[in-house]
Amino acid sequence: MNKGKMTVFAVMAAVLLTAAIFVVFLMTTAAGNRGPDISLPPAPSDDVTGGNNTVAPEVSDIDVEYLDITTENVQSIIEHLDRPDSYSLELQIEYHWTGGNSVFRRRTWVKSGAVRWQHFDRTGNPVLNYIITPDTVYVWEENGRGYVSYPCGEFSADDLGQIPTYEDILQADKDDIVSAYYEDRQSVPCVKVEVFDRDNGHTHLYWVSLETGLLWEAEVLAEGQLIYRMYVLQSGFSVREPEQSDFQLPGGRNPLTEARTDGGQ
Q1: Could you tell me if 38 and 80 are in contact, meaning their C-beta atoms sit under 8 angstroms apart?
Q2: Does residue 90 surpass a pLDDT of 60?
Q3: pLDDT of residue 209 exceeding 90
Q4: Is residue 188 within 8 Å of 24, Cβ to Cβ?
Q5: Any residues with CB less than 8 A from the CB of 262 and at least 6 apart, and which?
């Protein structure tokens, strides 16, 4: 999910999915002989009311300067966050409109610069697969005997997954970032950020996990009504490195192995 761009998803109208927001601490050494390091903080203190949690987490035994999250500094903070190079997760995507909705599940594996997406239908059956490398996109139907491939174009791995990505926030106009603060989501400590899309009037909400630095949930509102929602299924998330076999194409070819053989990542 590291090379995403702003994308338009059709849900009654174009839904421009813009990004995620994160939080960090600015830490200094006791000796003061090097510049400050950016690192993820511990979870915020509990808020049993369910409201906004803006209290700085308590940190003991280390010299820490608390860095407030503001609309002015979130873009520079994003640039210094560390995220896992390899992981796998399952997420759910919902499209809502007056009188109905559609729900889809996605699964993704990330390893050595390659991303695989597995799409499920409305009944929960896997139907379509993508593998995206820096140069090529591979596509095949679940249980299919063959695949097609084509050069990577303007669409990123995140576009194919129909999700926003943290890099979108770097492209947002600072004036469109409405707010950013702590809030728990699915019992996971997160930073919540609100971004206004002046092109279509939609409001974009993002929850970024403090534990992983990854986007945990996202919503899009049109005139206050939910039209898009994405959230990670907590039981389907792992930072364990995916297997090589997770990137195998029908017929046995493996782009990840070929990339390593050719001197790639």
Answers
A1: yes
A2: yes
A3: no
A4: no
A5: none
Torsion sign across C-alpha atoms 69, 71, 76, 80:
positive
Angle ∠(125,130,132) on CA atoms, nearest 5? 155
C-alpha to C-alpha distance for 170 and 152, rounded to whole angstroms: 22
Q: What's the CA gap between 69 and 54, in Å, rounded?
A: 9
Q: How confident is the model at residue 147 (pLDDT cuts 50, 70, 90)?
A: very high
Contact 231, 216 (CB under 8 A): yes
pLDDT-based confidence at residue 213 (cuts at 50, 70, 90): confident
Look at residues 230, 196, 204, 162 and name the one whose alpha carbon lies nearest to residue 9. Answer: 162
Torsion sign across C-alpha atoms 167, 171, 174, 175: negative
Query: pLDDT of 1-50, one tens digit each?
Result: 443 333 333 333 333 333 332 322 223 223 333 333 334 444 444 443 34
End-to-end alpha-carbon separation of the chain, Å?
Answer: 16
40 and 25 Cβ atoms separated by less than 8 Å: yes
What number of other Cβ atoms are within 10 A of residue 93's Cβ?
20
The Cβ of residue 35 has, within 10 Å, a number of other Cβ atoms equal to: 7
pTM (predicted TM-score): 0.71
Distance between CA atoms of 175 and 242, rounded to whole angstroms? 39
